[in-house]
Amino acid sequence: MKTDNNFDTRKLVLLALLTGIVIALQFLGAFIRFGPFSISLVLLPIVIGAALVNTLAAGWLGLVFGLVVLASGDANAFIAVNPFGTVIVVLLKGVVAGLAAGIAYQLISKINKTAGAIAAAVVCPIGNTGIFILGSYVFFLPTLTEWAAAAGDYANVTAYIFLGMIGLNFVFELGLNIVLCPVIVRLIQYGQDRRRTA
User: Which pTM was predicted?
Assistant: First the structure.
């Protein structure tokens, strides 16, 4: 029983640490941009939380990510258009990214932990971006149509969403997750080694 309590305490401490990292990285990431939006550097600690703590912890980290996006002003252009829709989309995309990463890791790591970490690292930005795309169509389509027309470089609003708004951001986030995946795997192995020696 004592070992279980110690193990739960370590998970709680790790979750608190990852929560702080998510907050710090999101505020830092607000200054790093490809295109009109900031890069989500916080997806890495979300994946780490999915692998080292659990799926619900990853969902929590995604929620914290969403709350910090709203607090940082990174979603202000959308809040001006539809505050309710912005809050729903921003919070939901973070939570879905975390839960999807957690589920992917739990399923694939049963076969191979490295493959599980890679799957989580891929699924996390896909969930984040997928909900953003869906929310864009549901809550912001008329405004985005106007933005696309004003930009003049895109054939239609869909091209604007995929190429103008998401394009480089998504590629960078996905690439960063995949490149840094070996680090995530090492952290997973380190966590497992500590658990065995406790």
Answer: 0.85
